[in-house]
Amino acid sequence: MSRTISLREANQAFSRCIREVEAGEEITITRRGEPVARLVPARSERVLTPEQEAALARLCDRMDKGWHLGAEPLDRDELYANARRPYDPRRR
Length: 92
Prior knowledge:
By secondary structure, the protein is α+β, with helices and mostly antiparallel strands. It has helices at 7-12, 14-22, 50-65, 76-84, and strands at 2-6, 26-31, 34-39. It has a 3-stranded mixed beta sheet. Strand 2 (26-31) and strand 3 form a beta hairpin. The longest helix has 16 residues, at 50-65. It is elongated.
């Protein structure tokens, strides 16, 4: 994700800019509308905030459990047999 800020804004909120860059944001700094510098993370790996870490853990847990959709387990052979039958609009 990238965003653009003016040199004045970067100067006034440098600490905030650094925190955002540490979190993986890329910031382009402009002077009179022209890009003059880019702040990018030194590491290619993104550092997550504690809230993001917790959200990721919840997501992984949910993905491991899955969601019950009320359907029977899928049988590959049965799916293939249904796909190979000729089309019949009356068939359900």
